[in-house]
Design brief:
95 residues, alpha+beta, two-stranded antiparallel ribbon, 5 strands, 22% helix
């Protein structure tokens, strides 16, 4: 852990595709769709909430298995839907 009382956090912001699919909404991150970062919901809001959860699980799995995480330098303000996932660094030996 970093300074006492402060966690080391890295935030990742991803472009999201959100589109109607028959009677539901599909949502996915093009940058990580090959890693399974896609889902659906009955409403656009539900699809985005579900995608947030899937994205965090995939990023945690990549980190935990020593696979490279996507690089991100800054948060972008965009007219496109975006999702940001924040990962809290685990303390060593807390697996």
């Amino acid at each position: 852990m970093g300074e006492k009382g402060r966690a080391n956090v890295t935030s990742y912001t991803f472009r999201v595709v959100l589109e109607p699919d028959e009677d539901v909404w599909a949502a996915y991150c093009p940058a990580l769709v090959n890693r399974g970062v896609s889902t659906w919901g009955r409403t656009p809001q539900e699809a985005l909430r579900n995608l947030q959860e899937v994205l965090e699980m995939v990023l945690e799995s990549l980190r935990d298995h020593g696979e490279p995480l996507p690089e991100a330098d800054a948060v972008h303000i965009s007219s496109e839907p975006l999702i940001t996932a924040s990962l809290v660094e685990r303390e060593r030996g807390s697996d």
